[in-house]
Input
Amino acid sequence: MRISEQAKQENRSRILDKAAEIFTGKGFEDSTTRDIALAAGLAAGTLFNYFPSKETLAMTMVSEALVQGREDYLRRCTGREDLAEELFLFVASGLRRLRPLRPFLGPVLERSLSPFPRKNVCHEGETARQEHLAAVQAILVRQGFTEAPDYVAMTMYWSLYLGILAFWSNDTSPNQEASQALIDYSIRMFVQLITGSGAAGGDEHAE
Amino acid sequence: MRSDKIIETELLELLPKDRANDPTGKRLAELLARISMKKIPVNSFSRIWTLGSLQARVTAGYLAYWLRSRFRNADEKQRLKSEAHLAAALQLFGAMGYLRGAVMKVGQMLANLPEVVPEEFAEVLSALHFEAPPMHFAMVREVFLDEFGREPEELFATFDRQAFAAASLGQVHRARLHSGEEVAVKIQYPGIARTIKADLRNLRLLLQPLCLTIDWQDTLAKLADIERMLLMETDYTQEAMFCKLARSAFTAADQVVVPRIYDDYSTARVLTAEYLPGCHINDFLATDPGQGERDHFTRLLTVATYRLYYRLHWLPADPHPGNFIFMPDGRLGLIDFGCTLMLNDEEWIFSNVAIQAALDRDLPGLNRSMARACRFDDPDDMEPDHLEVIRQGFYWFMEPWQQEGLFDFGDRDFFMRGIDNVMEATRKGYTRSLPMTIWSNRFTFGGRAFCYKLKGRCEFRDIYLQESAGVQPNHT
Output
């Protein structure tokens, strides 16, 4: 039986909603696609028409949150930010949108965003990575960089970002305030790396 | 980047001088230079305050001075050993720094433990207090989203991106409410409380070898009290409560203003208060005010502090110059009540019994109070010289209370006698005392250093009589 595009969209968003509930309740590892299909009132087979795996499902949520985060950042950006501040705004806006998913995010990100070579690359994860890095490139261009940073700089950026995500997903401080300090410091490190300059007082000491 | 030579010259000027062993301050400067060459892993909170900066080194210098004073009478071997510990401690002090707020507070307090309070120190501290803020605006916005769910520009009609002052553990931005009022918005660094705890843990760790012999338990008790007060400062809800109580203690006729707090714009991490126009003491002094103006503000400051003491049983224990606003219309503004010690009934009675004994010239009674302040059961348990030095300090404190007419707080001899007494007590190791005395000393010396700088006079005894007449009985 063919169903309408609208019904498809409804199914899709119902699956995502239910999956978020179940992941939050049972954790990502202990949840099954069967649980999710059941909760969404669908046959397990039908669910696979929408999302081929549990991982894809979770990563879709992550991607959508990050897209929203990117929109937030563009809306919030005043054009008066310097490089470090603009990167901070970008990263923090994304994390804010990811916040509702935080309870189950650790294993999802570990599987989907791992920088190690894997047999099954998560398509959504790879897209999220590329979009994130493209946004960073756009920030660099806006901040007056004429050359794109080389793979070393971008790999370091990505490593720092993954480090932030890993720490943040496990950060027990109120409002993940400890992560805020980590983001700030990580970004300053990156800015220092690509500009070759000290970002703030006190850096002379580290020379 | 500034040349090292200039930094070294300035450093030498700013460092405390040990009259006997290091009259030029050169040895201390060398020690600091040596330590600042060493690499320590800095954390996100210390990027501003490694020992690379002049201010940090000056602060460390005072810390070194204080630590060293404990080994003045030690033998050479012990001194060398202590020097090694000192280097280690100072290095860590450099790493502690990001929270310039917290570190400066600790530095300030260490300086105000009754050990070192040379008058220049107030200068150094006030300069450090108004450092450029390290939180960029994007971070401020995140704090706002967490605290209010809204951006600063949404919450306020206007909001300055740049902070205009550093504050206790945060920074202050100017803003305007939609209803038109000008306000000062204080924002706290994310995660400062845990850094304070970590910093104090480190401090304890590093002070340990230095304090093995003398009153270590006493030092621990004081550090615990400092930690308690610092953590209390991180709760802006409590500060808001202090502000409101303080505000209610003054009328328009008093010419003392405590800014109004805007609750709808305040949380535990953000405090929005009425903006008070005016300047701080250095700018005020730069206008070359006449004696009348100096006396006027000295009187207001005295009324303000003793009103809070007698009516609310408070010691406003952060008499930092930045907390007093000289308003153009002649009023005195009091801001920042983060570090306020509320005396409990026992402390309040204890404090007044001592004051009364001094006023009545009741020597046995005064001795009993002094012994208690030094944590002895009985004056006879104290060495006579110990008792004498502490008592002299208290007499110094009480001098203004006993003089009829104008008291001149700008009198250099008077101020230096107070400093000398503290130095003597330190030199002789008479530092054991109730934790409360950290704050009462800070209250006294901070206030007197301020009035000394102001070269102001007031009829202190009249003010005391007037304010103590409005005394509130015990809270409980």
Residues 44-49, 97-102, 111-133 of chain B have pLDDT under 50 and may be disordered. The CA atoms of residues 319 and 447 of chain B lie 6 Å apart.
